[in-house]
UniProtKB/TrEMBL annotation:
PROSITE patterns (alphabetical): HTH_TETR_1, HTH_TETR_2
Organism: Siminovitchia terrae
Annotated InterPro entries: DNA-bd_HTH_TetR-type_CS, Homeodomain-like_sf, HTH-type_Tx_Regulator, HTH_TetR, Tet_transcr_reg_TetR-rel_C_sf
Pfam families in alphabetical order: TetR_N
PANTHER family registered for this protein in UniProt: ACREF/ENVCD OPERON REPRESSOR-RELATED, ACREF_ENVCD OPERON REPRESSOR-RELATED
Name of the protein this chain belongs to: TetR/AcrR family transcriptional regulator
Length: 220
């Protein structure tokens, strides 16, 4: 692909990300994207075969580098401390999402919609993500038992990693914090690590011996 074509494709993707985030996928037209990218509508059909193909390209532009970050840290476990690799993966994910905050917000929001494309993403990219997180978590725990089940650790960690970007408007307006700022990312990273270290603590055999029963949940 020529440099000119590469620039055109990137301009289209950036315009699509901005419009998909603010107007939604259904509320955005090919003409809107072409106008924002300052290109002809025919370019979108030529490079992406339409709006659906452009949506898929946006999702791939997020998940490919995102999973590469996790994959690299998984490989380093063979010769580095697993805990260091896990912490580094978390930091890299936060920085990556902060650098691409609009794309991140759109992608995680899109995954919450029950659609064909979201099911494809879940069955491919997110299943691979689960594998990488399970490998990192298990490497840190080793032969012991953690304070929480591995599945619960990963589910809660996933929520922590996506929340600032999925709810960036709330965080900005209510708390006066901005997920795209390095200071926020550093402080948020530290809070995740503090929580993770507690969650991954080796469970003592008698840890639950004197624990009172959980209160019943009342339903209205």
């Amino acid at each position: 692909m020529s440099g000119q074509a590469g620039i055109a494709k990137q301009s289209i993707i950036e315009a699509a990300i901005e419009l998909f985030t603010t107007k939604g996928f259904k509320g955005t037209t090919i003409r809107d994207i072409a106008g924002r990218a300052r290109l002809n509508s025919a370019n979108i059909s030529y490079y992406f075969q339409g709006k659906q193909g452009l949506l898929e390209a946006c999702l791939v532009s997020f998940f490919e580098p995102y999973l590469t970050l996790l994959e690299k840290e998984n490989k380093k476990v063979a010769w580095e401390d697993p805990e260091i690799c896990f912490h580094r993966a978390i930091r890299k994910i936060l920085v990556f999402q902060s650098d691409h905050h609009l794309l991140t917000r759109f992608v995680w929001r899109e995954i919450t919609i029950d659609s064909q494309i979201s099911r494809e993403i879940i069955s491919s990219y997110l299943m691979k993500e689960r594998y990488y997180f399970k490998e990192l978590t298990s490497a840190v725990i080793g032969e012991h038992h953690s304070a929480l089940p591995v599945s619960m650790i990963i589910i809660q960690l996933k929520g922590m990693l996506s929340t600032p970007f999925l709810n960036s408007h709330y965080i900005s307006e209510v708390w006066g914090m901005h997920p795209k700022e390095p200071y926020f990312i550093e402080k948020y990273y530290e809070s995740i690590i503090d929580w993770l270290q507690e969650a991954l603590k080796v469970q003592k055999s008698d840890m639950h011996a004197d624990r009172p029963p959980a209160p019943a949940i009342k339903t209205v």
